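Q: What residues go here?
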């Protein structure tokens, strides 16, 4: 595959970097944290999103090296973002989460950059939890034991088994943006969209989990979500993902 050679070349040239998207309180937009989202600054093709290369990166085994190229920058940037108590959330691929010493490496990086574990979150997808439950459970339990919150990403997109929610140390549910996109499609006839949010929020409340709604793009969606009891989210209504310098400048002004 041509792109695989490209990925390896890109790694040696440090072309991968994190952008940061704020996670906010829906009612007033107060920033609670930032999700780190990988970008590839391709010399010819410009800025590439994960959709353009993540699958090949995972299948070719490059993902571990790419993740670390991203994570090292995230940890170096984290002290600037977490000064006011905000968290930084990183995405870890299932394949990478199965690597045995990943928890130790993450804790080392936190220590080296003097970031408190309470200021780091890990996002894993539902699919990940299907892949190697035992090893992944050990790793997530250890990270959770150190105070790092674990978020279940893309919640509701098809692999969910509610049994995961007490099998794994999940503290945060991220509702996939496909649900948000459907929430305001003809409210009078479609009560399903709102019902899903109400149900997930009630489940999360009863298990003391936090809900973060992805893909909040309009004020109407925000208002509906607030009516349904959802309090936290991220999306273009607030901000897309931006490089670290953008947030550091915003903080200084
Ligand atoms: O930015 P975009 O919508 O294209 O992101 C798509 C997906 O890529 C995200 O939902 C996330 O799961 C994945 N992703 C983003 N950043 C990283 C990263 O640093 N490492 C890994 N493994 N996956 C990431
Ligand atoms: O894996 P995850 O679903 O967390 O990936 C988040 C991705 O979704 C980011 O890559 C980002 O570019 C994209 N994104 C963030 N906010 C919005 C939004 O409001 N609408 C849409 N369509 N995409 C978004
Ligand atoms: Na994510
Ligand atoms: Mn997500």
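A:
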């Amino acid at each position: 595959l041509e792109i695989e050679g490209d990925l390896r070349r890109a790694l040696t040239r440090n072309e991968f970097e994190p952008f940061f998207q704020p996670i906010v309180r829906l009612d007033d937009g107060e920033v609670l944290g930032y999700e780190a989202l990988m970008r590839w600054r391709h010399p010819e093709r410009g800025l590439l999103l994960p959709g353009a290369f993540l699958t090949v990166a995972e299948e070719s085994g490059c993902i571990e090296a790419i993740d670390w190229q991203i994570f090292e920058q995230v940890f170096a940037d984290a002290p600037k973002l977490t000064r006011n108590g905000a968290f930084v959330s990183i995405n870890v691929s299932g394949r990478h989460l199965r690597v045995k010493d990943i928890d130790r490496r993450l804790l080392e990086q936190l220590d080296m950059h003097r970031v408190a574990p309470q200021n780091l979150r890990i996002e894993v997808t539902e699919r990940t939890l299907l892949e190697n439950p035992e090893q992944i459970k050990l790793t997530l339990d250890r990270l959770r034991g150190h105070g790092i919150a674990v978020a279940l990403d893309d919640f509701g997109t098809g692999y969910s088994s509610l049994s995961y929610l007490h099998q794994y140390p999940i503290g945060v549910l991220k509702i996939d943006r496909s649900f948000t996109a459907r929430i305001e499609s003809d409210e009078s006839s479609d009560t399903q969209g709102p019902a899903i949010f109400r149900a997930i929020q009630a489940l999360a409340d009863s298990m003391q989990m936090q809900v973060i709604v992805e893909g909040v793009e309009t004020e109407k969606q925000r208002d509906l979500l607030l009516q349904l009891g959802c309090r936290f989210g991220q999306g273009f209504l607030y901000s897309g993902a931006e490089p670290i310098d953008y947030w550091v400048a915003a903080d200084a002004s």
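A: Context that may help when evaluating the design: The pocket of sodium ion (ligand 3) is lined by residues 35, 91, 123, 153 (CB under 6 Å). The longest helix spans residues 63-81.
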